[in-house]
Design goal:
The protein has eleven helices and 16 strands. With 447 residues, it is α/β, with parallel strands linked by helices. It folds into two domains: 6-358, TIM Barrel; 362-441, Golgi alpha-mannosidase II (Immunoglobulin-like, Sandwich). It has an eight-stranded parallel beta sheet with strand order 5-4-3-2-1-8-7-6, sandwiched between helices. Strands 9-10-11-16-13 form a five-stranded antiparallel beta sheet. It has a three-stranded antiparallel beta sheet with strand order 12-15-14, with no helix packed on it. β4 (211-215), α9 and β5 (242-246) form a beta-alpha-beta unit.
């Protein structure tokens, strides 16, 4: 059994990273954060990648009622701790998962290393509440995924929940986890030490990590999270690793990309982004294939493939990546209806991916009819919903030399008029998800 004693944790923290010492780089005397050259290069790669897979998977999958089941059903720790004994993902196959990522045209994978229930999906040295020590499976799935991602050329991010419904030192309690049956007392500093140690485990034991995807800060937004200490710790261990935090607000010093939960940047339809001012950092929107993050047996609200493709395209038009979630079953299999959607998106990207990968948000802001993306001297006009044969675009800062369809390279007529650029569209096929027109400019535009 692994000890969670405070002294052991503090000792391990000191050995791993000397967290009490000033950071070696990153934080300037005035508190500003200066990213390293490796970090800046990673940001550029991230913006070029455009499409990733999100995976919510844990012992909660055994109840097939989503990742919040412990909170929603008010399950106390004593009962919830029985779930690991039922979690035996014998059908998990890292090669198949990563092959599905590639078949979908995705460039990276973000998986829940630890969710709000506090259960670690890897072999933690500071807790036995993990997949190796508490389940009959007794294998580290993150190690298998890390090895396979390296083999197939997929970048790997780790989701880590700052919120913890299980750990006794997560105290004072936040907005959630009040029915877990924990004693009313704990050492908040010791909890943060444990968190930093687990992050060090993930950053030191699984090869190069593309980034850390934080969630749960919103549970106690007024608490002292020691974020700069934690962020500098991550950047010292792996300078290229990108840090993002799903706190639904303004980005904070030390963060390298900004995410938007179930919304495009600047929107707040899901109610999470009221305080989220769009930053100059790389952007990412995360969304589910159905209505759930973790596996939910009764969720039949699977989005259509055209709907998901349009979401990917709109995200690119908003200068953002799309992180699209799957919720594997407890046995380790990705539900077939979700896998089918991913493969179909991948087929579409084989033809139209050039208008998504490596692009930035285009010179025409998102409109009801669609969006634009751009790369060098090419502007891609994504006509998602427009019944007319003529589309009027605002005048561009560079003269248009030629216009053509992306599929088939059919030349199109265009004319610069007082009201803007008049673009003649070809007839639209009934099943055409996105009518992509390529405008070749005489000189590149600055994104």
């Amino acid at each position: 059994m692994k000890s969670r004693a405070g002294a052991s944790v503090l000792c391990f923290v000191g050995v791993l990273c000397g967290l009490c010492a000033p950071p070696a780089w990153g934080q300037q005397p005035d508190g500003r954060y200066t990213p390293s050259a490796a970090n800046i290069a990673a940001r550029e790669w991230f913006q070029d990648a455009k499409f990733g897979m999100f995976v919510h998977w844990g012992v909660y999958s055994t109840l097939a009622d989503g990742e919040w089941v412990m909170e929603v059903r008010k399950i106390p720790i004593a009962a919830y701790e029985r779930l690991p004994h039922l979690f035996n993902p014998t059908e998990f196959n890292a090669e198949e998962w990563v092959s599905l990522v590639k078949a979908a045209g995705m460039r990276y994978l973000t998986i829940t290393a630890k969710h709000h229930d506090g259960f670690a999906m890897y072999d933690s040295r500071v807790s036995d509440y993990d997949i190796v020590d508490r389940t009959p499976y007794r294998r580290d799935v993150l190690k298998q995924l890390a090895d396979e991602c390296r083999r197939q050329g997929i970048k790997l991010f780790f989701y880590y929940s700052q919120l913890d419904w299980h750990h006794p030192d997560y105290y004072p309690r936040g907005q959630t986890g009040r029915n877990a049956g924990r004693p009313e007392g704990g050492d908040w500093g010791r909890y943060l030490d444990t968190m930093d140690v687990q992050l060090a485990e993930l950053l030191k034991g699984y090869g190069e990590v593309a980034g850390i995807w934080f969630d749960g800060y919103w549970d106690k937004p007024d608490a002292d999270w020691r974020l700069r200490q934690t962020y500098d710790h991550i950047h010292e261990l792996q300078p290229q690793a990108l840090i993002g935090a799903n706190h639904h607000g303004r980005t904070l010093p030390g963060e390298d990309f900004q995410m938007f939960e179930k919304d495009l940047p600047g929107h707040n339809t899901a109610g999470f982004s009221a305080e989220a001012v769009i930053s100059q950092l790389p952007l990412e929107t995360c969304e589910t294939i159905n209505g759930s993050w973790g596996f939910n047996l009764l969720d039949r609200s699977v989005k259509s493939t055209p709907e998901l493709i349009r979401l990917l395209v709109r995200a690119a038009g908003y200068n953002a990546n799309l992180l699209l979630n799957v919720g594997p079953m407890a046995n380790g299999e990705v539900p077939e209806e979700q896998a089918e959607r991913l493969r179909e998106i991948g087929d579409w990207l084989k033809v139209y991916g050039v208008s998504v990968y490596g692009t930035r948000g285009g010179p025409v802001s998102p409109r009801p009819w669609g969006v634009t993306t751009q790369k060098e001297n090419l502007v891609y006009v994504h006509v998602l919903d427009w019944p007319e044969r003529t589309l009027v675009l605002p005048s561009l800062a560079s003269e248009v030399a030629a216009a053509r369809t992306l599929a088939g390279s059919r030349s199109l007529r265009f004319r610069q008029a007082e009201e803007g650029l008049l673009l003649s569209l070809p007839p639209r096929a009934a099943d055409e998800v996105d009518q992509v027109v390529v405008l070749e400019l005489k000189r590149p535009l600055h994104p």
